[in-house]
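Tutorial, part two.
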Amino acid sequence: MMEEAEKIKVRYEKRRNNDAGKNENTVFIENVIKERETIYSGIIKEHFNKTDKLKFIEIGAGAGANIGFFRKLGIKDENIVAAELLPERAAKLREKYPKITVSEGDALQLAFKNSFDVVFQSLVFTSILDDNFKKNLAHKMREMLKPGGIILWYDFKFNNPGNKDVKGVTKAEIKQLFPSVNKIAFYNVTLAPPVGRRVGSMYEFVNSVFPFLRTHLIAVIKK
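Running the prediction step on this input gives:
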């Protein structure tokens, strides 16, 4: 039987093939990124006095779309680890950010313990359909945190009826994944893509007036 990590590879490959040739709505993407990075920045400033000493790891770093932002916050390359399952994306990470540490392969095999101030995941857990794998990865992320560190989470909370290869992760499930954590801070973010793509430059206005249309969660899980 195929292991879950191998199944995830297949899902990402299928998604890449389906997305090939599609025109991206740059206005929508820019607004989504701006919204969540503004919140990330506030969270980091709230929890840490300085960023130059922070140890940071991203689980499922892709080709590095998020790494650049955290570098701009002042986290140094030598303190950044990018964990990535797919070899071609890991290669792109090494090419784009030669001074960071790239760990290629299954994140469950990472040997870090009490090593990072920030453990970050973005759109990873919704691509995991095996409940035990999710629980094990959540445990691994918490295990990697230093005392006082935070897990920073961004993912969607609803199922996508048009894509059976992903599954939304709700607030209740996040709490179940981290049962020993007393308090988790949640932020509802990101206009539902069908709406966000249509409203264009009105994104911020619509997002503020109709918060119930937000489909994603940012969570701060503190050790």
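Residues 122 and 154 are 5 Å apart (CA to CA). In part three we will examine how such features are distributed along the chain.
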